[in-house]
Specification:
The chain is an alpha+beta fold and about 450 residues long. Helices cover about 30% and strands about 25% of the residues. The protein folds into 2 domains: about 10-200, Chloramphenicol Acetyltransferase (2-Layer Sandwich); about 215-450, Chloramphenicol Acetyltransferase, CATH 3.30.559.10. Belongs to the plant acyltransferase family. This is Acyltransferase Pun1-like.
Length: about 450
């Protein structure tokens, strides 16, 4: 918890932003799907930083005020299409689209953007999120589905933070919303209108009563969060090593996320063994995957909802190597993709796949209980967050935050090809993990972002 002396970001004002046009009565209720229901309650956070005039040396307060007015007005217009975001969550599977509004927060930062980018710090970054302030943190508990915080730096730079309910929006949905909103703000809409979102709700899979939810196992106590950056060249080297080590006949179509995740989990397991002195901790790794391009027919980017699902990678051997983890992840991904493609738009098949995955995880925890280790990964890679331009340039940096224990959060690194990974572990595990030589051979611990901001935006 930040003390008053630690607080660098201060709220100036906050208010609800309603849709510019009322939501028709026939759209006033959105019933959510099983996939929406399976997502945990905590908000999903996205942070976009935009450099000020002259790279952070000038003022620009009047232009920032103009930007804020444009963003707020265009948000109201965007909410006409994205009307559930202006509603309220009334249960785990229902949204009342009542036009109460998204929440808009304006803040100022007593520092320069360069100070943030020089050495990104999770504790400081959390101050740019409306969920971290006493004035606005209760909004989620009241059913608010979207809160936006606009923070102006002393140099003229701007941070745009979105906190959205995971009950409605996955990473692809949020990226599509941000691009649609920013295009409206910048006046880039062809024919005056962006491709409208299609809220799937329960059209694919209806919500069900489930006896077991994975969110029950998301501890947050005694954790430490660190950032590691994997450059594209390092990921290529890691892939080359993985391909050389692969067994004959195994798929070697490894993705960036699979490679980085396998290395991180390998090092996390080694750290846990070092701390506990035991290698007999079976592990469940749950990785989120995008369903849109894995269904038949494929869904579109403007299909809004939680079209992501978690695959389970079980490791009963606590000494799994990088190659073993990578092979298991690839096999599960191939198997899951085949199942999703075979199910097509058959809601019964999708429900069967979802329940089977949850049941498998439930059996794991029932069998191993406190002996087990549970790791999660969520990735924002490939969703074009760096294309979010409100009219004065693309982001200088995009990042995300999560403080859940044993959680790996990934986003595209600035410049393309690389990955920024935020890793949260027990603090004792982290003390060993962050010194792992194999990890440090491929990852840079929290390097500066400032040197990458070559062409700052103008506000």
């Amino acid at each position: 918890m930040n003390t008053v002396s630690d607080q660098k970001v201060h709220i100036i004002s906050s208010t609800a932003v309603e849709p510019s046009s009322p939501t028709p009565h026939r759209l006033r209720t959105l019933n959510l799907s099983l996939l929406d229901q399976l997502f945990p309650t905590p908000l999903a956070h996205t942070l976009l930083f935009y450099a000020g005039c002259g790279g952070g040396g000038g003022g620009g307060s009047s232009s920032n005020e103009s930007l804020s007015r444009r963003m707020r007005a265009s948000l109201s217009q965007a909410l006409t299409d994205f009307y559930p975001l202006a509603g309220r969550l009334t249960s785990s599977a229902r949204i009342d689209c009542n036009d109460e509004g998204a929440y808009w927060v304006e803040a100022r930062a007593d520092l320069r953007l360069a100070d943030v980018l020089a050495r990104p710090d999770g504790t400081l970054l959390s101050q740019f999120l409306p969920s971290s302030h006493p004035e606005t943190s209760p909004l989620a508990a009241m059913g608010c589905l979207l809160t936006v915080q606009i923070t102006t730096f002393s140099c003229g730079g701007v941070a745009v933070a979105t906190c959205s309910s995971h009950k409605l929006m996955d990473a692809s949905s949020m990226a599509f919303f941000l691009r649609s909103w920013s295009a409206r703000c910048a006046g880039r809409l062809e024919g005056g209108r962006a491709p409208p979102p299609r809220f799937l709700g329960d059209s694919l899979v209806r919500a069900k009563e489930l006896p077991f939810m994975l969110s029950d196992y998301a501890g947050m106590e005694s954790c430490a969060t660190r950032r590691f950056v994997f450059e594209g060249s390092k990921i290529s080297a890691l892939k080359a090593e993985a391909v050389r080590s692969a067994k004959s006949g195994e798929s070697t179509r490894f993705t960036r996320v699979e490679l980085v995740l396998s290395l991180i989990v390998r090092c996390a397991l080694a750290a846990s063994r070092s701390v506990t002195g035991s290698s007999h901790h079976p592990t469940l790794l749950r990785q989120m995957v995008n369903l849109r391009n894995r269904m038949s027919p494929a869904l579109r980017e403007n299909d809004v909802g939680n079209l992501a699902f978690g695959i389970n990678i079980l490791c009963e051997n606590g000494e799994s190597t990088f190659e073993e983890l990578l092979s298991n992840i690839r096999k599960e991904m191939v198997s899951f993709t085949k199942g999703a493609e075979a199910s097509g738009s058959d809601s019964g098949e999708l429900f069967s796949i979802a329940c089977g995955s949850i049941g498998k995880a439930g059996d794991f925890f029932s069998k191993w209980k406190e002996e087990s280790r549970f790791y999660r990964c969520s990735s924002l890679c490939g969703f074009r967050f760096y294309d979010v331009d409100f009219g004065s340039g693309k982001p200088a940096w995009v990042t995300c935050l999560s403080r859940m224990k044993n959680f790996v959060y990934m986003v595209d690194a600035k410049g393309g090809g690389g990955i920024d990974a935020w890793v949260t572990l027990d603090w004792r595990d982290m003390a060993v993990f962050e010194r792992d030589e194999e990890l440090l051979a491929y990852a840079a611990p929290n390097p500066s972002v400032a040197h990458r901001v070559m062409h700052p935006s103008r506000f």
